[in-house]
């Protein structure tokens, strides 16, 4: 997951233009409902999914056989091949790929050490997008991003700026808002201050020597500087050393952009029985950062949505609409797969019933919400009712679209949110520790069950969930 | 901590030669007792120590200012200088060093990767004592040491032997017995099988990508092979890959022995009031592995024993005997400091009242025992009584001497064991994650209190705890 999408679509996409009795009449005419038979089938599907280890096995396959799969690396192509083969092996009715082109960033080596009387190594990792470079300089500590942004221009000349901000743990990942900004905005602030290098305490909630990488950006017109995140204990150590006096650090990063690369969104479909050209879109992203094997981010999202669709395909009676699973390319470095999908499929936006991406690990899903407009709220509540036995609360109006769904949701796609418990997510996120052993098979099965129930019911609904091209003035989906 | 010393001295050192009424008369004559006044002072000392953060601050100082301190590295000398300066700063009455010479082993670089269709890096670390070398070979998995030892000679020609044994978690560290043997004996077994390289699942109980290093040995007459430990998740990954078919791995270690080095045991004393030439010996080891900053192993041991002695020195009335704190050199690679101390001080063995080393982290102490012979059992029970309010159980006859005390205990030194809760110890032991943030200040203060109470009371006792040169036939203290 690159970024939390925390702002809900605030306006109902169509209802807002109707009023009074005209609205009531219209609503009655086009009210979306889910047939009782589908609700009964969903209850059985839920139990089947809970008892299945399919999602767990698919996640194991991806993270083991492909391993780390940085976008643009040799493993990117292996991941694309894996996803195509897996869709076919699982009996999906249609499998295809769509090209996604993006700039390629490489990590080659990275190291750092405290110099002088307390010389010792520090564990860090380059931020995605950082240039290469070796900087040997005194470190200036800032408590948070605001403190660095307040530094006078040029005041950090020849120094390494270090933001020592400690990210907070939260079930919904709320701490990643401020934590992620330290990563995305810190380097540019450091450059404005004149710094030669940038260090940050990792945007993570663990206490292991596992630095958290992630993409950063440099504002237009600035000359990028080597930028890296220290593991949390190493940030602690640096802060303790700084409390004792001046500290000089040598950071050496060999990494950088190198041309462009074309990867692919990999798409598989379980075809619908009556309206096969209308789709419920679910998925995760296929790329990962290079440090771990991308289990929680986002092998699980790919595995659990593939499994959910497959279990729907196993039903005696298929739902009316098609279940489309997308394994998105290069989410991590800028939602490239999500943007490419939105651009390509915009002409068919209305044929997309609703979309949901799993990209927040595989902790138990605890809440459900969607962008359902007034005429689909009853159906939305039906979905919530079918999810309730999984311990999922109905929280209408909360949250937003998953990252790769975001660009399409901005164009008007209806979205659902199946909120995963992310209490421990940022212990592992973007670190070497994001590995398959961290996946709880029971929690993953609960995720598969929730996605299966959601997708099946949305695909079975009589009526729509409000997807339609957004007016230019529509409030954009937040990032 | 290099090795668990789990075998108690089974024989009482002197009582065994006495019998019947002769014994009773002798016992009455020389029964060791602790004066009531000392018991009262110990109770106050205990509360003072619990409220003090001195041990925590000393541990912080060592792990921060010196950092990792592999025996023989440049940091070894910095650690020796730190310990001397710290003893002086703390006002110890006498501070000196004693040379300890040992072979020097260096780690320069290490990496590994799976080759072929699932190519991906594996995180490992060379075992201490491993030679350098690059091996590219198929991996043969063994469930445990016995399975590898049963391999036919030559059957592993050109292969990498991999022991996939999972160490068990236990409060007393019992799982390290079999786990540690995989490290100490596995490489020789692999060589006998003809292997070109040796890999093991780390002897650790964590699930992080933190390989656990530690010393290994190669049996006489064998040609050492590159030997390393995989992080636990990487061992999981390798096992999953092997379950799918043959796996070829490239392991590249640059490390090895390089001449000898002379470090020092650093010794500080709080002088006794009446029998200053008799000493109660406490301490920890100053060296650490290079991956972490040696907080639980064994900065805490050094910090808490220094603090305990210093708090005893702060008392209005000093105990009769001297409290001697030893920061032992190079425990990790073969108890070099402990052996040097025993060799040098053997002539004065009887002047050592009793010894105790803290080298099992800084978890709460939950049990007390010692080698006290019959005539000192009442005093031993008094010590246990003074420790009880700290939640410490009296477990006479259990356990053995700490590692660096071991060589001297084999020669006849009386020893005590203040058993630390090691439930989490092997999550961190010998990994990069052994850092100061893992120390719980409250638990460390409890340790300081326990060591202070023990050392103060042993130094105040009227009578001895049984130190005397061991007969040649005495059962050796187990390793």
Automatic annotation (TrEMBL), chains A, B:
User: What are the boundaries of the signal sequence?
Assistant: 1-24
What subcellular locations does the record give?
Answer: Endoplasmic reticulum; Golgi apparatus; Lysosome; Secreted
Provide the alphabetized UniProt keywords: Carboxypeptidase, Endoplasmic reticulum, Glycoprotein, Golgi apparatus, Hydrolase, Lysosome, Metal-binding, Metalloprotease, Protease, Secreted, Signal, Zinc, Zymogen
Q: What sequence ranges are listed for the domain Peptidase M28?
A: 265-450
Major localization listed first in the record, in broad terms: endoplasmic reticulum
Source organism's superkingdom?
Bacteria
PANTHER family in alphabetical order: CARBOXYPEPTIDASE Q, PROTEASE FAMILY M28 PLASMA GLUTAMATE CARBOXYPEPTIDASE-RELATED
Q: Subunit structure, per the record?
A: Homodimer. The monomeric form is inactive while the homodimer is active.
**What is the protein's name according to its record?**
Carboxypeptidase Q
At the highest ranks, the source species' classification is: Bacteria, Pseudomonadati, Pseudomonadota, Gammaproteobacteria, Lysobacterales
């Amino acid at each position: 997951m690159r970024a939390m999408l925390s702002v809900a679509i605030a306006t109902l996409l169509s209802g807002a233009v109707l009023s009074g009795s005209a609205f009531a009449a219209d609503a009655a005419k086009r009210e979306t409902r889910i047939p009782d038979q589908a609700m009964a089938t969903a209850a059985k599907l839920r139990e089947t999914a809970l008892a299945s280890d399919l999602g767990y096995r698919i996640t194991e396959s991806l993270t083991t056989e492909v391993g780390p799969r940085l976008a643009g690396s040799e493993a990117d192509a292996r991941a694309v091949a894996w996803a195509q083969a897996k869709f076919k092996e699982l009996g999906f009715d249609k499998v295809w790929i769509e090209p996604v082109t993006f700039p390629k960033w490489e990590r080659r080596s990275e190291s750092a050490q405290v110099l002088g009387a307390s010389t010792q190594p520090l564990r860090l990792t380059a931020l995605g997008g950082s240039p290469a470079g070796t900087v040997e300089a005194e470190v200036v500590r800032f408590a948070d991003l605001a403190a660095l942004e307040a530094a006078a221009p040029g005041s950090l000349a020849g120094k390494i700026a270090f933001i020592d901000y400690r990210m907070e743990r939260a079930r919904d990942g709320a701490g990643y808002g401020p934590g992620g900004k330290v990563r995305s905005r810190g380097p540019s602030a450091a450059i404005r201050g004149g710094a030669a290098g940038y260090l940050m305490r990792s945007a993570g909630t663990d206490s292991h020597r596992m630095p958290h990488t992630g993409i950063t950006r440099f504002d237009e017109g600035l000359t990028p500087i080597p930028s890296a995140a220290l593991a949390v204990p190493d940030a602690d150590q640096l802060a303790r050393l700084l409390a004792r006096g001046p500290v000089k650090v040598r950071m050496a990063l060999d990494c950088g952009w190198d041309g462009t690369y074309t990867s692919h969104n990999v798409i598989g479909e379980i075809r619908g029985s009556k309206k096969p050209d209308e789709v419920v879109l679910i998925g995760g992203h296929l790329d990962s950062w290079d440090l771990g094997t991308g289990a929680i981010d986002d092998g699980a999202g790919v595995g659990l949505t593939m499994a959910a669709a497959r279990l729907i395909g196993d039903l005696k009676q298929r739902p009316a609409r098609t279940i489309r699973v997308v394994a998105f390319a290069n989410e991590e470095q800028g939602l490239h797969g999500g943007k490419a999908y939105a651009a390509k499929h915009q002409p068919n936006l209305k044929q997309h019933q609703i979309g949901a991406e799993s990209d927040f690990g595989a902790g138990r899903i605890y809440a459900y919400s969607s962008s359902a407009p007034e005429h689909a709220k009853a159906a939305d509540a039906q979905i919530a009712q079918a999810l309730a036995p999984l311990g999922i609360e109905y929280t209408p109006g909360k949250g937003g679209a998953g990252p790769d769904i975001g660009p399409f949701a901005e164009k008007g796609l209806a979205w659902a949110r199946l909120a995963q418990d992310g209490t421990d997510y940022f212990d592992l996120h973007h670190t070497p520790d994001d590995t398959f052993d961290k996946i709880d098979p029971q929690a993953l099965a609960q995720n598969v069950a929730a996605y299966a129930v959601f997708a099946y019911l949305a695909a079975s609904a009589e009526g729509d969930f409000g997807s339609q091209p957004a007016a230019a003035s529509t409030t954009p989906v937040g990032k």
